[in-house]
Amino acid sequence: MDLGIAGKWALVGGASKGLGWGCARALALEGVNVVMVARGAEVLEAAAKELRFEAMVEAAAGWKTPQIITVAVDITTEAGREAIWNVAGGPGKNYDIVVTNAGGPPPGDFRDWDREAWIKAIDGNMLTPIELIKATVDGMAARGFGRIVNITSSAVKAPIDVLGLSNGARSGLTGFVAGASRSKIAGQGVTINNLLPGKFDTDRIRATLPAMAQKQGKTVEEMRAIQQAQIPAGRYGNPQEFGAICAFLCSQHAAYMTGQNVLADGGAYPGTY
């Protein structure tokens, strides 16, 4: 299926690995020009190099080779965002697609989190996506096309006790999007949706497994097996299939979807709604 977005510009956060990389890859392979953002310059450039090669192969089969630009900054800071808007060869703030994604806060016991920990979580997982939306949404509306996808978490629907920082910050973003997505921009070709990952085989899950294993008196390997057995699909997801869902939400075909929380968890969430 042609998603109808070749030649457009996308900004993807946390794009050097994991789910952010999966989204950047899926968009680039659809012919979208991608600005990849992450903190670590070396890992980011290696990911971009791999993606440039893959996109070039796709281009040989008929696609126009997209531009892939890297910006190694902390997107949660004002200086980092300014660097993105001013990167050489980029579109300034005139993005057609924005995929917000920042590393989740660490797991732990809520009794141990002070105000600084909460502010950091809210800044990274709520306020930063809002700042990116504010900077780009009016331009999208003026051009008559825009897609914003916020990578949040399945914990928004089914909170995880050791991820309280994430539960709180991401739920705040979800409430904001519920209102903003239904404002007048909905009639101007701009959609805002949240993509909620369940358990995917990324560094994030490898970081949270030890805390969960310790809490239940299990080894990490036992905890992994328990988790996978609880997923109807019988496995963790992978970044490539997550990216494919993201690319669809960014496509011309998803124009009638806005303000939604799209859950990708292999059937793990047990609720009807």
UniProtKB/TrEMBL annotation:
Protein name (Swiss-Prot/TrEMBL): 3-oxoacyl-ACP reductase
Organism field: Limnohabitans planktonicus II-D5
Top-level taxon of the source organism: Bacteria
A Pfam short name: adh_short_C2
Entry similarity comment: Belongs to the short-chain dehydrogenases/reductases (SDR) family.
